[in-house]
Write a structure and sequence with these properties.
single chain; 117 residues; mainly alpha; 0% strand
Length: 117
C-alpha cells in the first residue's frame, strides 16, 4: 500500500504543477521556486510532515520535498545550536543532494555536447 500512497501523493503534487503550467502565465522557474517555498512554509506550520508520513517518497522526491528538507534541517539545527542553526541547518541537511546535483551535472556536461535550440 505504501507504493500506492506514494504514487497518489506524488501524482497530486505533479498534477498541481501541471495545472500551474497550463492555466497560468508563470514560468517554470517561478513554479519551481513556488513549490520549494510552499514546501518550506507547509513544513514550518506542520502540514507537510503528515503528508510525508502518508506519501513517503511521493512527498519527499518532488521539488516541494526540497523545501521540506531545508525547513526541517533549519528547525532541527535551531533546536540544537540556537538561532545560528537557522542559517546553517537547511544547507547542512541538503548538502548531500546539492553535492550530487553539482557532481552529476558536471559529469553529464563533460560527457555530452550541448546544442543550442
Amino acid at each position: 500500500m505504501i507504493y500506492l500512497y506514494a504514487f497518489i501523493v506524488g501524482g497530486i503534487l505533479c498534477a498541481i504543477g501541471q495545472i500551474f503550467i497550463d492555466k497560468t502565465m508563470l514560468t517554470p522557474a517561478r513554479i519551481l521556486v513556488g513549490f520549494v517555498v510552499g514546501g518550506a512554509i507547509l513544513t514550518a506550520v506542520g502540514l507537510y510532515e503528515p503528508l510525508v508520513k502518508i506519501g513517503g517518497a511521493g512527498a519527499t522526491v518532488p521539488i516541494s520535498g526540497f523545501g521540506y528538507l531545508l525547513a526541517k534541517g533549519a528547525i532541527e539545527a535551531v533546536r540544537m545550536y540556537g538561532w545560528t542553526g537557522a542559517i546553517t541547518g537547511g544547507v547542512a541537511a541538503a548538502a548531500g543532494g546539492i553535492t550530487a546535483a553539482v557532481v552529476f551535472g558536471f559529469l553529464i556536461a563533460m560527457i555530452f555536447n550541448p546544442k543550442e535550440k
